Amino acid sequence: ILQVTKMLDQGATFIDVGAYSSKPNADEVSLEEELNRVVPIIELLVKQFPDIIISIDTFRAEVAKQCIKKGAALVNDISAGHLDENMLNVVAQLNVPYVMMHMRGTPKTMQQQTNYDNILKDILFYFSERITAARTLGIKDIIIDPGFGFAKTLEQNFELLNVLEGFKITDLPLLAGISRKSMIYKTLETSASEALNGTTALNMVALQKGASILRVHDVKEAVECVTLFNTIK
C-alpha cells in the first residue's frame, strides 16, 4: 500500500502487478501459488484505491480472469498468448486491453534463444501473427512490447532500441520496459540499484523513437522525463 501510494502520488497512470518473476532463469510458480499470491493483492489495492487502474502481469488465462474479476483493468502477457493457449480467448471474452510482449521460450529458457536474422523484421513478423490471432478473436485494444531483455543479448537490446521506430508500422501503442535492466547496468559496469540515471537516459531515447508507455520502477523520474519530452515535442 505504501509503495502504490507513492507511485500514484508521483504520477503513475497504472500499476502493474505480477506474482511470477520473469527474470532470466526464474523459477517456475504453480498456478495455485500464483493465484494465492496475486488475487489478495488485487482485492486489497482496489479496496484501498477505488480509482486505481491495475495491469495484471501474467501469462496464465485463469490468473488474468480471476484478477480482472477482482478489479484489474488490463492484461500484460510476456508470452503474447504462447504459454497458455486459452489466453487470447479469455482476453477477448473479458473485453480488456492486452499488452503482448515478444519473447521466445520461457523465462527459464529464453536466453538460449537469441538467434535472429534481422531483429526488427523477426519481431515484426512475430507481432503480425500474434496481432492477427488476437484481432480474429475480437481483441480490440492491443499494446505491443518488444521485450527488452527477453531472449535477447545485451548487444541485441541496444540494436532493438536503435530501430524502435520501426514498430510504428503496426499502428499500435508501444510499451518500453527498460527500467534498471542488465543492458544498462552491465554496460555501465554498475548494479541495478545504481541504474536510475542510465534508465532515464534510455527512457528518453525510447520516447523519441515512438514509445507510448514506459514501464518503470522509478515513477517520479519517468514522469519528469515524459514532461520534458512533451515540452520538446
Offer a quick outline of the entry.
It is built from 9 helices and 7 strands; from the N terminus they run αβαβαβαβαβαβααβα. By secondary structure, it is of the alpha/beta class.
Q: Could you give the topology of this structure?
A:
Layout: H1 2-9, E1 15-18, H2 31-48, E2 54-57, H3 61-69, E3 74-77, H4 87-94, E4 98-101, H5 119-137, E5 142-145, H6 154-162, E6 175-176, H7 182-185, H8 196-208, E7 213-214, H9 219-232
Parallel strand pairs: 1-2, 2-3, 3-4, 4-5, 6-7
Structure description:
The protein has about 230 residues and is α/β, with parallel strands linked by helices. Helix content is about 45%, strand content about 10%. A five-stranded parallel β-sheet has the order 1-2-3-4-5. The longest helix has 19 residues, at about 120-135. It is globular, with a radius of gyration of 17 Å.
The oligomeric status of these chains comes to single chain
Structural class: alpha/beta
Q: What is the count of DSSP helices, taking H or I runs of 4+ residues? A: 9
What is the number of beta strands? 7
The share of residues in helices is 40-55%
| Rg over C-alpha atoms, rounded to the nearest angstrom | 17 Å
For the record, give the distance between the C-alpha atoms at the N and C termini, rounded to a whole number: 35 Å
List low-confidence stretches: none
> Could you tell me the mean pLDDT?
96
Shape: globular
Q: What order do the SSEs take from the amino end to the carboxyl end, as H and E?
A: HEHEHEHEHEHEHHEH
How can the largest sheet be summarized? 5 strands, parallel
- Strand proportion, as a percent range, falls in 5-15%
